[in-house]
Write a structure and sequence with these properties.
Blueprint: E1 2-3, H1 6-9, E2 19-20, H2 35-38, E3 41-53, E4 58-70, E5 76-81, E6 103-113, E7 119-125
Antiparallel strand pairs: 1-2, 3-4, 3-6, 4-5, 6-7
Length: 126
């Protein structure tokens, strides 16, 4: 962790100093009470495209998807994944793989389990 230099920290009330946590939590979150942090998954559908092309009506399908997860101490990492890894709650690709309807989709989908084990999610299409 890094603290601000003395000149900048004197501007904060009551002698407070800002700390910068880099690449992980600034406290120990390895215990089971922090499992909700490790349950957070971020799906980045950079693109998913399906369309017919050529005289023969070939179906072209391309996609780039990655999954972001949090580790034991809150360290975040991306890994490549596939459309089949998307949770059932994700919407926008329901017709993927059918004959060949035209689809172009981009989204970020985040899901999690809260400290009581309840499932939640948010999706932003762009």
């Amino acid at each position: 962790m890094l603290s601000l230099d003395a000149d900048r920290s004197r501007d904060l009330p009551n002698g407070l100093a800002l700390l910068l946590a880099q690449d992980r939590a600034d406290i120990d979150i390895s215990g089971p009470e922090f499992n909700f942090v490790r349950s957070i998954r971020v799906y980045d559908v950079r693109y998913a495209r399906q369309h017919e092309s050529g005289r023969d009506g070939d179906c072209n399908r391309t996609a780039a998807v990655r999954l972001g997860t949090y580790g034991v101490q809150g360290d975040f990492a991306w890994a490549p994944t596939s459309l089949t890894a998307l949770p059932e709650a994700h919407v926008g690709l329901e017709r993927w793989g059918e004959h060949c309807p035209g689809i172009f989709h981009r989204s970020v989908f985040v899901d999690w389990r809260d400290y009581e084990g309840n499932y939640g999610y948010e999706q932003v299409n762009y």
